[in-house]
Design goal:
Elements lengths: L1 E10 L2 E11 L4 E5 L6 H8 L7 E6 L2 E2 L5 H6 L2 E3 L12 H6 L10 H6 L1 H21 L15 H13 L5 E5 L7 H18 L2 E5 L3 H7 L3 E5 L2 E6 L1 H6 L1 H6 L4 H4 L6
Parallel strand pairs: 3-8, 3-9, 6-7, 7-8
Antiparallel strand pairs: 1-2, 1-4, 4-5, 9-10
């Protein structure tokens, strides 16, 4: 579904991504791990159009999407979330979801004057869809709560909800478990599984919690120093000598968590 060919991203003389190549299969939940500074988030940002690559190519379903801006990729079904959730804090959780779809009739001055019925019909449909999404996420009780007042884990669920408002094809999740308690982390992982199995979403997940990766991801890709080091199951990654060396000695074998 996504193919990355020899992507390089430099900042001055520093190669944050240094000739990375990988493929993301449609329908997979792929984990992306690696030590701090491995280039994982930078690669995410290049694929998602947040950063322009210095060189290399990114394709989606065979189409060259290299350097396309995020709003164009959004319309193609490629979405990216961030380690820190970006909600509209003073708006309710329901309103946060209702804002996601683009091209709404109420966005034009003409329709606010002459298309009020169309706007009202769209708002009813969006409200119904937002409520359906909140129920799917098991946070329907937060529909009327200000999004800025809910917990960190609930904000992460809300970000997943935004992807459901536009029927995303592939979602890049950057440390979705960061700062989330264990109970909500299980809820998030179950939601990702359900979106994958029931709605056909493809996911790529950066995460430092190896329990979370093991619960969700196959395959797992390990990066180090801007390059792809290894790919396979988590068990194969943990047994890979290059990966062990990248994580400084035998630390990866003896730890449940590794730096991201």
């Amino acid at each position: 579904m996504i193919r990355v060919d020899n992507v390089v991203k430099t900042f001055g003389g520093f190669h944050a991504v240094d000739g990375a190549s990988l493929e993301i299969a449609q329908g997979s939940i792929t984990g992306l791990i690696g030590p701090n500074g491995a280039g994982k988030t930078t690669l995410f940002n290049v694929i998602a159009g947040v950063l322009q690559p210095t060189s290399g190519k990114v394709t989606m379903m065979g189409e060259d999407i290299t350097g396309l801006p995020p709003h164009d990729l959004f319309h193609k079904g490629l979405l990216r979330t961030f380690q820190i959730a970006h909600e509209f804090g003073s708006m309710t959780c329901r309103e946060n979801l209702m804002m996601v779809p683009s091209g709404q009739s109420g966005e034009t001055l003409w329709n606010t004057w002459f298309g009020r019925k169309r706007i009202a019909d769209e708002e009813r449909a969006l409200k119904a869809k937002a409520d359906e999404v909140l129920e799917f996420l098991t946070i329907e009780h937060l529909a009327d709560h200000p999004a800025g007042a809910v917990s960190g884990g609930q904000k992460k669920l809300l970000e997943l909800g935004r992807t459901m408002m536009v029927d995303a094809k592939i979602v890049f999740l950057d440390e979705v478990g960061a700062g989330v308690n264990r109970t909500l982390l299980y809820t998030i992982s179950d939601t990702i599984k359900r979106l994958n199995e029931e709605r056909g979403y493809t996911f790529v997940v950066i995460e430092h919690d190896m329990d979370f990766i093991e619960r969700l991801c196959d395959p797992v890709i390990c990066m180090a120093e801007g390059k792809v080091l290894a790919e396979g199951t988590l068990a194969e990654i943990k047994a890979n000598e290059q990966v062990i060396e990248a994580y400084l000695g035998t630390g990866l074998k003896n730890k449940d968590k590794v730096g991201a």
